[in-house]
Amino acid sequence: WWSDVEMGPPDAILGLTEAFNRSKDDRKVNVGVGAYRDDNGEPYVFSCIREAEKRLLAKALNKEYIPIVGTVEFCKLCVELALGEGSPPIKNGNYCAAQALSGTGALRIGAEVIQRLSNGNKEIFFPTPTWGNHARVFTHAGLKINKYRHYDEKTNSFDYDGSLQDIEKIPESSVVLFHACAHNPTGVDPPQKQWESLSKLVKQKNLLSFFDMAYQGFATGDFNNDAFAPRQFVKDGNQIMLAQSFAKNLGLYGERVGCFSIVTSSKEEAESLLSQIKIIIRGMYSSPPIHGQRLVAEVLKDPELRCIWECELGAISSRIIKIRKDLRQKLEALGSKKDWKHITDQIGMFCFTGLTEEQAVRLTKEFEIYLTKNGRISMAGVTSKNVDYIAKCMHEVTK
Ligand code: LMR
């Protein structure tokens, strides 16, 4: 049955962790996958999650199936976090939502929804560059992939003119994917004024926007600020689709908790869509896991846990900002002739260093620093102990 199956390549991001784990070299550093580490390089479990776990344990809940689309409470809490409590779609019931297997699962449900249910084009436009897994998620659902400009390599900033020009040319009724905040891999987002213009353009062209929001609260430490773009789009009358993940902002990576939602034009439309989403999910994995969503709900609905969560996110974003400064300073102190200003200009978990593929591969092969070949490093993996080594090696390969 399987004799013709060829060996597949390792995953561009998760394959790095596999290689890192295999390595026996003491120098090894994992700045590949976007997973937060504390300053000792250890995985971090949020205190609010530890507390929520205790509370859940005390409740001794059963393990029955939850509804195909998750609980109404969980979904509402997620959409409120994203769009803001009391936002018109929530007040009027003009949205539908389903628990998803983290952000990737939410994107995958969205891809099926577009493929099976939308009467628009089956074509999605990605920013360039974009997260390494986007193409796979959407092509597996049978969508055609296309691109628009996002990152300007010359200025290491958002290519506003390029993106407007490209989006202007997108055929009406196509889908456009946006990273809500902390763009992965570049760490470069449009400023608010530019989001406002993008929203108007998308509305005017009748495009369907799909927001990938994997970093709400992680980019600036402020949930409202990080949700500016999807909220602005909704305010302007765009019926957005949204993929939320709690992997990074609540550290629930392996629990796989996320939410997929759509803002609709009416309550009836939302109800019909939800009934179809149920059929899609039932055919893929039947119903979602219970533990992670209970943790999220526990934190989101309890003001005390929410407050702890916000403090923790503030501390995390401060550590990342500080380590960005350190890395830049060290490179400059080593006498690097390159301009490293973008290390401190970019936001969120990643730094798009500007290293070429050849330089990135050298860092891995010669120096045991595991980063993606596009030159992205996860700042969350840089610590006060390894920053000197990383700077020295980055300088070495860019001389
Ligand atoms: C990343 O970009 O490193 C993360 O989103 C993890 C993943 O699944 O790729």
How much is the radius of gyration in Å? Answer: 21 Å
Distance between the termini: 52 Å
CATH class of the largest domain: Alpha Beta
Task: Assign the CATH topology of the largest domain.
Answer: Aspartate Aminotransferase, domain 2
Approximately how much beta-strand content do the residues carry?
A: 5-15%
Number-wise, the strands total 13
What is the domain tally?
Answer: 2
Task: State the helix count.
Answer: 16
What is the CATH homologous superfamily assignment of the largest domain? Type I PLP-dependent aspartate aminotransferase-like (Major domain)
> What about the largest sheet?
7 strands, mixed
Bound molecules: (2S)-2-hydroxybutanedioic acid
Note the run of SSEs as H and E.
HEHHHEHEHEEEHEHEHHEEHHHHEHEEH
Taking strands numbered 1, 2, ... along the chain, how are they ordered across the largest sheet?
2-10-9-8-7-3-4
- In helices, the fraction of residues equals 40-55%
Unreliable parts: none
Indicate the mean pLDDT: 96
Question: Structural class of the secondary elements?
Answer: alpha/beta
CATH architecture of the largest domain: 3-Layer(aba) Sandwich
Oligomer: single chain
Principal-axes geometry comes out as: globular
EC number: 2.6.1.1
Enzyme class: transferase
Keywords: Aminotransferase, Pyridoxal phosphate, Transferase
Subunit structure: Homodimer.
